[in-house]
Fold Glutamine synthetase.
Amino acid sequence: MSVQNVLDTIKEKNIEFVDFRFVDLSGKAHHITVPALSVGEDTFTNGVAFDGSSIPGFRGIEESDMVMMPDPEAIFVDEFTAHNTLNIMCNIFSPDGDRYDRDPRNIAQKAEEYLQSTGIGTSAFFAPESEFFIFDDVRFESGQNVSSYSVDSDEGIWNTGREEEGGNLGFKIRNKGGYVPVSPADTTQDLRSEICRVLEEAGLVIERHHHEVATAGQQEINFRFSTLVDTADNLMKYKYIVHNTAMKFGKTATFMPKPLFGDNGSGMHVHQSIFNGDTPLFYEKGAYANISELGMYYIGGILKHAPALIALTNPSTNSYKRLVPGYEAPVNLVFSKGNRSAAVRIPVAAVTPKGARIEFRTPDSTANPYLAFSAMLMAGLDGIKNKIDPRQEGYGPLDKNIYELSDVEKNEIRSVPANIEEAMDALEADYDFLIEGGVFTEEFIKHYISFKRDEAKEIAIRTHPHEFSLYYDC
């Protein structure tokens, strides 16, 4: 969409305000709102100034001036504002006109350019399955003398004995019993459908929605794949619309990977493929799972670099509460055509040549999508360039139930890092594949590692409530 088309949209839809947005290092959106009457062609030339020192992980106060440059291709009308508002995603620049190298969207755009420069293909396509919970109540606090959290859902299995107004009507979802039940067990169909309606208004193509495995309102909504940057933009819209639609219904949504102990967590399974023009590069009829050698090498790159990659795809301390055996968590660094506990799965059901793809199941939605998708692409491209064959490297295929293997067999399978510190150690030791073509910079990687280590320390130094259960009577 051209700048003129954006200005025409403002007039046609009676837009009163334009909301300029950007994404920080952690993947959180920020915004500055400008009256529509003040937005013209010069806005797209000069940008919108903001204070970079107030954004975590950006700049110090001595170099705080930064500029948002709006992208006319990335707009949607906001349904949650009282005044007609047009949201527009921006790229971040320094005042001297240079792209800011810590802007996640800049890194994603460089990743797309790097793919094209390799001659391997013209486009990388991504489709994340971003799971989330919808709760009726959430409470938490962390202070000097108190540390606690509580979440509640009318669907929660722990509420079978709760006294409710008019009596308890039952139909609570058991642990691991929440995969696609009909109502009245599934109480959230109308909410999901409304989310889908708003997503479609924002330009996403919805493929399906359903209740997920866990008790207490775990959900999944799938939207159609697109190119790397466009998919990252769409995921930012998706999270914004999920959060705000839930709030509109008097509920609260979270993409936190493991808000509940003892049941499945929420992942972000990322489907991905490479095309050269209109030609899919991951398909080879008759091969294992109909995946091409190029696709195999892509898998090899993902699995070889997985410990470092996970620092960007699973960047929270809570991520590793999900990545434990027993809850369908993809902790095993192997590939398979059917095993959902494998880190990489090759979908085979109802797959056409153009639908041939690989699915990296380990990531979760605490990831910054621009960084995570870029890192996955760079790992896969490294696998293609260096012909890393996952079959020869001992990554499978493994089409068995991993949980039923003997201890000897399990010990031969490499696993994901056990915590965020191990993931950061792995990234510190293996990031050359990320800085190829200047996509990521060494300075960015070192800054990111320091930023995340500081975040991890905030958890490590605080007393945990369960420690009272273990040690108070010592």
Notes: The two ends are 66 Å apart (CA to CA).
